Amino acid sequence: MGDPHDGLPKSGWCPGTVRDAAGGIVALSLATFLAVTTEMLPVGLLPLIGAELDISESTTGLLVTVYAFMVAALAVPLTVWTARLPRKGLLVGTLVAYTASNVIVAVAPAFAALAAGRAVGGLAHALFFSVCIGYGARLVRPHFTGRALSLVTAGASAGFVLGVPLSTSLGTAVGWRAAFGVLAAVSALTAVLVAALLPAVAGGGGGQDDPGRGSSGARLAVVSVTNAVVYLGQYSVYTYVAVVLLAAGLSVSCVGPVLLALGGLGLLGTWYAGVSLDRHPRASILTVLGVLALGLVALGLTFPALGGVLAAAALWGAGAGGVASVFQTAAIRTRGASPDVVGALVNSTANVGIGAGAALGGAVLAGPGLGSLPFVGAALVLAGVGVVLVARRAFPASP
């Protein structure tokens, strides 16, 4: 496979250091903030949405499943079909689609229309992260990939820290529809800012983006499957975090602030990934997944005692903040495909995990019950740890 940065000078942008690419990285970080807030906002509002539409919490959780499965099914084909389109225009187009999605949800008269609006967002998301991951990799030279992608992913962490909790608090105060309406306005503003700040890069369709073969492709497959398993474990629990917190005795008005605190702790995981991935990638991913699994086990052991649940959730949140960075970087470094196709695979497999996790969590709620949920999630994350330990070529000790 050729260098994914070949041919970039023709776009007017030459990859350099993280400092050189600061403007573009900020633009991508803003966009990921918006994307994650749009994707995950229903998590904090599930009880309110279910109550207004008179549907169960497990059915309301399908709003996350529909969105995620749209991404899982369409990320790779849409990325391939749009490979020759300008990357910047394509990225801005996804932000416009996020705006439309949030408007539809805000005014939806029934659950079917609500699900349709979420499907529009899923369509946008199928392309957004695929293009965004490849974009971040192209902005810098290869040995800065880990730090650049961690900074881009910091926008996603900020979505958990600020976007989802503040929107949840807004929804609790004035209604969940108002929260989606405000998010629609923020989506439109983000599209304008990204159009102004992000430099154009070349990408897609050229010889430099020919997929890798053989062992590189096999390593990419291992990273992608492990990514799906870890996200499955994480989102089987996180989709229902508001339900867990309420069952432990937290008041409805405190759910937003607690999610805000958990998201803030997630920035620790993002920071750790940013400072370690370019030096010790294998140790980084094992540390992140180990903390994540430990937090979920502690959550199961302490539930339903509120103090223990909050302490365990703090550990869980810190580990979760580094997950996206470590898998995106590991996948890019396999060189098993072009940056855009790698981004599509990471995006698709993560959303297989997110969507299946929401469905699995709903099944556990309906069956064994809420107390079993953290242990199910922990078991799946530990399965991912096992793969990392065995697959040393897919997850090497050095970049």
Automatic annotation (TrEMBL):
Location(s) in or outside the cell: Cell membrane
Native source organism of the sequence: Antribacter soli
Membrane topology term: Multi-pass membrane protein
Keyword ATP-binding attached: no
Keywords for the protein's UniProt record, in alphabetical order: Cell membrane, Membrane, Transmembrane, Transmembrane helix
Name of the protein in its database record: MFS transporter
Superkingdom classification of source: Bacteria
InterPro entries associated with the record: MFS, MFS_dom, MFS_Efflux_Transporters, MFS_trans_sf
One Pfam family here: MFS_1
GO CC, alphabetical: plasma membrane
Gene Ontology molecular functions: transmembrane transporter activity
Residue ranges of domain Major facilitator superfamily (MFS) profile in the record: 24-395
Annotated TM spans: 21-41, 61-83, 90-113, 119-136, 148-166, 178-204, 240-273, 285-303, 309-332, 344-366, 372-391
